[in-house]
Design brief:
There is one protein chain. The chain is an alpha+beta fold and 818 residues long. Among the domains are: 96 residues, no CATH class; 204 residues, no CATH class. The strands form five sheets. Strands 6, 7, 8, 9, 10 and 11 form a six-stranded mixed beta sheet that branches. The chain has a six-stranded mixed β-barrel with strand order 16-17-22-19-21-20. Strands 1, 2, 3, 12 and 13 form a five-stranded antiparallel beta sheet that branches. Helix 10 runs antiparallel to helix 11. The longest helix is centred in the middle third of the chain and has 37 residues.
């Protein structure tokens, strides 16, 4: 212990004696450790921390499986089938995610609040804290049960002032009276955060096959995930026997851990970013190791004298490792502080699609996992930085070192080789990061060059919850939309207005269909496609071109013949030869009585628009007039899907928000919220790619700077070592240009070696980024060539500065150099 304290005191004394070296090393380590701490904090919150629910390690999501993989989504008959697996599962729960708002009426304070429908098991499965009142009972969760609701603590305080007597009070939701039976505590962590919890009231005898919610459960104690999957395969066989048209022979049911399903879309990007920032830390370590090797050369005489008076090799190594550990420890503390700032900066630019980060990023912060990671990173950094310099310093030849005086000229070839290797490693890691950043930049550029199929400029969108009996009929919705659109289109600057169940880039529902007169090969339908109901002028608002046939008009009413418009992707897939105009299709076959309807005539083909995102190819899409939607379908959609209003303007679209909201309040006395421009929607659709590109670009920039500093430091040190040699050469008549080229050539050999090694490594590692790329190969030659050229150019500049210093050496002064 006394020896350790002695080493520690000696380390602090030596580091204090060289403040410039110490501050430079600490700054490099703080950047590397801080970046890793920031990224790991997000990875920890999203991927590693257990879900904040009881027995979260046994929580599972129920899935539909098929040749293309598995995905959540449930119909009421499927949910009822899954509930029978009581040997493997418990607390099987149905829940939707609601729309952007359920209209809360009453007095002068109407508002939209997010509400979800849940089965009564939801509260037990997720351990929902009830701070007042109670949860649903099984009787209240049955069809035609009473109108009861739980409210969030936030809504309770905001709307009811935290009134302790709120339980039992009425509240108007969608124009219907409900009774408040409980208050859910703010500690409940659920995304998105709901304000209202309404009973699901699933019909146990339902045959309706619409997928509009998800289901979760908990594995019974002692049941493995594989046993649950085997049980669900049997359930799928039983379901297929009961509903032969609803589950194909290659499709079935499966289950996976809830946490895995929640994070699987963001896992690849987070792991790539964690690996990238890990490379930055390795580059920082190589830089500091280079500084330590250089410093050990200056201390060679000191180390040789200590060895001569009896200090063993391990004693010297331990002292030097203690110095690097002190550096890493101070860098770790600074990195922890820098990481806390970095987390806030990350969340400020995050794309908003990261699950589990909580409200305003409250779920991301310092905990024991992050502290342990930072401690481990600091310890590992100390070892990586100090081991090579310590081993090299301890191998010095005593007589030669003492005789040479320990000056710069006495540096051993081993130290030079070590420094060269470290610089090559830095350059190789930098080229990997450059290539990764280049691929994401190319992806981002490709996304921005994609034609979305619509014109997003000067388009405003807003949402309205249409819950309430008065809107459960197509006649009620049609009358409302007709009157509202007439008034909106009369506003100054409004060119066209429409309403729809969907907007481009955000997708929508999908339904099966049959083509009348076409023989099916197998299965219940000829195929599936996106489905949306729209009002006339919808295609005018988005300037989607009708390439054949016609758009909808005010004559496409409830009593008129049923019509449908399809997009070009639909035509390409299902009418590879021939013209769909005049053909008939039946939408929703086998979906149950709520969806059964007569055949519709295809009256138009509209140009493709990117429905699922700019990085997704257009998929088949069907549009029907809102006036011709079945009442039962509207009633179901209104439960969880808002009606979206879209206005094309000749001015700033946000300037029309207040006027449009005023019109709608006059007509329907309902709030119209969530105002956005379509340009915001487009920007949000690429936010994840922008986030990944920004971070990897920052890491690559830091890597280049660190690598350039490392090469510059190496060449400056080499010039210092060879001062006498250069003086002699110049005294003998050597041209300055030849000396400059000698230094640059030595540096570029290292740069080329690092570039080649890094390119080979990048060729293998960038394949892990394939899922993040769009219209660019993971081995794109343009990116690899540009990365190599950029790094070589930066290294050329970094080597040129020491080379200029070499040619300015005074021969007489150089000959007097010790």
């Amino acid at each position: 212990m006394d020896t350790f304290l002695q080493d520690l005191k000696q380390a602090f004394r030596i580091l204090r004696s060289a403040p410039s070296f110490t501050l430079t090393a600490i700054a490099a380590l703080a950047v590397g450790i801080g970046g890793n701490t920031a990224i790991f904090s997000v990875v920890n919150a999203v991927l590693l921390k257990p879900l904040p629910y009881p027995h979260s390690e046994r929580l599972v999501q129920l899935l539909n499986s098929g040749p293309q993989g598995s995905a959540p989504g449930a119909s009421v008959p499927k949910y009822n089938a899954w509930r029978t697996q009581t040997a493997a599962l418990e607390d099987v729960t149905a829940y939707d995610f609601g729309g952007p708002g359920i209209n809360i009426g009453g007095g002068d304070r109407p508002e939209q609040a997010r509400g979800i429908h849940t089965s009564h098991e939801f509260f037990r499965l997720f351990g929902v804290p009830i701070v007042a009142g109670r949860a649903f009972t099984a009787e209240e969760d049955r069809p035609k049960g009473p109108n009861v609701v739980l409210i969030s603590e936030g809504l309770w305080r905001r709307r009811f002032g935290g009134d302790s007597g709120v339980v039992g009070k009425p509240i108007s939701l969608g124009g219907e009276p409900y009774t408040i039976i409980g208050v859910v505590g703010s500690a409940f962590d659920f995304n998105p955060t709901p304000d209202l919890f309404l009973p699901f009231q699933a019909d146990p005898d339902s045959t309706q096959q619409a997928h509009f919610f998800t289901a979760a459960a908990r594995l019974k104690p002692g049941v493995t995930i594989e046993q649950a999957r085997a049980a669900l395969r049997l359930t799928a066989d039983e379901f297929r026997a009961r509903f032969p048209d609803q589950l194909g022979p290659q499709n079935g049911f499966s289950v996976d851990y809830l946490q895995e399903v929640m994070v699987r879309n963001v896992r690849p990007a987070l792991l790539v970013l964690l690996g990238a920032v890990g490379f930055v830390l390795l580059i920082a370590c190589a830089n500091v190791a280079n500084l330590l090797v250089a410093r050990s050369s200056a201390r060679a005489r000191e180390i040789a004298i200590r060895a001569a008076i009896g200090a063993g090799r391990w004693r010297i190594v331990r002292q030097l490792l203690t110095e690097s550990a002190v550096l890493a420890g101070i860098g770790g503390v600074a990195g922890l502080a820098l990481g806390g700032f970095g987390v806030r900066a990350l969340l400020a630019v995050s794309p908003g699609n990261l699950p589990r980060i909580g409200q305003d990023g409250g779920g991301v912060g310092l905990d024991w996992n992050v502290l342990t990671f930072t401690l481990g990173a600091s310890v590992l950094t100390g070892i990586l930085c100090g081991l090579i310099p310590a081993l090299h310093a301890s191998r010095a030849d005593l007589s030669t070192t003492i005789k040479d005086g320990g000056g710069p000229g006495g540096a051993s070839p081993h130290r030079n080789r070590a420094r060269n290797v470290l610089v090559v490693v830095e350059l190789a890691l930098a080229i990997v990061l450059l290539a990764g950043a280049g691929l994401l930049i190319r992806t981002f550029a490709a996304l921005h060059s994609v034609a979305p199929g619509f014109d997003p400029h000067n388009v405003l969108t807003m949402d309205t919850s249409m819950t309430g009996a008065q809107f459960d009929t197509s006649a009620g919705v049609t009358d409302l939309t007709r009157r509202a659109i007439e008034r909106m289109e009369a506003l100054p600057g409004v060119e066209a207005a429409a309403a729809s169940s969907y907007i481009p880039l955000e997708g929508g529902l999908g339904l099966p269909f049959n083509i009348v007169g076409r023989q099916r090969a197998e299965g219940p339908s000829d195929g599936g496609a996106g489905w949306a109901y729209v009002t006339p002028h919808f295609f005018d608002v988005f300037r989607e071109r009708v390439v054949r046939g016609r758009a909808f008009t005010e004559r496409d009413t409830t009593g008129a013949p049923g019509v449908v418009i399809v997009n070009e992707a639909f035509e390409r897939r299902y009418w590879r030869s021939g013209n769909p105009l005049g053909q008939q299709i039946v939408i929703g076959p086998g979906m149950g009585p709520a969806f059964e309807e007569p055949a519709r005539e295809v009256v138009g083909v509209v140009a493709d628009a990117r429905d699922g995102g700019l990085n997704s190819d257009p998929q088949p899409q069907m549009f029907v007039p809102v006036a011709q939607v079945k009442d039962s379908v509207l009633a179901l959609n209104n439960r969880f899907m808002p009606l979206t209003w879209a206005l094309r303007t000749s001015m700033n679209p946000l300037a029309t928000v207040a006027a449009a909201q005023g019109i709608f309040k006059e007509i329907a006395d309902l709030p119209m919220g969530h105002p956005r421009t379509m340009e915001e929607v487009v920007a949000r659709s690429t936010a994840g790619d922008r986030f990944n590109t920004l971070l990897l670009g920052v890491f690559a920039t830091v890597a280049i700077l660190l690598a350039a500093i490392g090469l510059y430091g190496l060449m400056a040190y080499a010039v210092e070592q060879r001062t006498v040699e250069f003086g002699i050469r110049m005294a003998l008549g050597a041209a300055p240009a030849s000396l400059r080229n000698m230094v640059v050539k030595q540096a570029m050999k290292l740069a080329i070696a690092g570039t080649v090694a890094g390119s080979i490594a990048a060729f293998g590692l960038t394949r892990f980024m394939a899922s993040l790329l769009f219209q660019v190969s993971a081995s794109d030659p343009i990116v690899f060539t540009a990365s190599a050229a950029l790094l070589t150019g930066v290294m050329l500049v970094a080597s040129y500065l020491p080379a200029r210093r070499a040619i300015r050496i005074d021969p007489l002064a150089a000959l007097r150099h010790p």
